[in-house]
Amino acid sequence: MRAAKGGAHEQGGKHISGGEQISTFEGITHAVNFLLEKGLTHSKGSPDFMQIQFECIHDSVRLLKPLDVQSHQIESVEKGQALARQLLRQAGVPKSSIETLDQLLPSYSRQGGAVLFDIHSDRPIDERGIRVSRMDWQPDNYEQWAAYHGVPRNLRMKEALVLATKVTSHPAAVAELCWSDDPDYITGYVASKRLGYQRINKLKKFGDEQGCRIFFVNGREDIESYIHYLKKQPIFIRWEEAE
Ligand code: PML
Ligand code: MG
């Protein structure tokens, strides 16, 4: 599902909401209703464009363990942003890529998809915005994970962790940087396979509608296959308690 206001995303409409689910045939009505409701009741406003698409998945579903989660409580947005940059450096993103980012961020915020950014050329690869799709986490397994880790149930975090786990598990991925475009949600994260999901409680100011979702990639890898993986490879997150 993707919803926008002022027309479709590709016609310059403002992104309102998006969502993905993997369902059985019997569960489609429930899944579509859930996504419809999600798009219609968003704090960013009422959409005047929504697209809900469902398609049969023929490929086998790959299972991935959720990234480990670590949370940082920071007292200011400036410190949160500084920590995010430090974590990106630790994940292998060069300083030059991080410096280029600041100039590019304002133009990224409207499209409701992610931008791929090549750490070798310091340039975005596809500026149209990629929608990562075909991923989910079965509710009962998610509940077990949340109870085990003492994490309050948070649909937004669940969806972000599903996406970050999918995105960072491919060999072309270096790291992801994300914060919401919702004005009332200021927590974001840096994720990488090695660092896990590093949550930062302040990455922007309340009221700010500028979000960010950037996938830093190694442009020397096969990026076409990475994009195909992001859009088409079905993924279930599955957690198992360590023995
Ligand atoms: C979004 O809502 O667009 C992204 C939210 C990212 C942070 C989720 C969390 O860990 O709380
Ligand atoms: Mg949003």
TrEMBL record:
Reaction equations catalysed: heptanedioate + ATP + CoA = 6-carboxyhexanoyl-CoA + AMP + diphosphate
Pathway(s) the chain acts in: Metabolic intermediate metabolism; pimeloyl-CoA biosynthesis; pimeloyl-CoA from pimelate: step 1/1
Enzyme class, first EC level, given as a word: ligase
GO MF, one annotated term: 6-carboxyhexanoate-CoA ligase activity
InterPro entries: BioW (IPR005499)
Documented EC number(s): 6.2.1.14
One Pfam family, short name: BioW
NCBIfam families cross-referenced by the UniProt entry: bioW, PRK01322.1
Record note on quaternary structure: Homodimer.
Role, per record: Catalyzes the transformation of pimelate into pimeloyl-CoA with concomitant hydrolysis of ATP to AMP.
Protein family per UniProt: Belongs to the BioW family.
Name recorded for this polypeptide: 6-carboxyhexanoate--CoA ligase
Organism: Bacillus norwichensis
Lineage: Bacteria, Bacillati, Bacillota, Bacilli, Bacillales
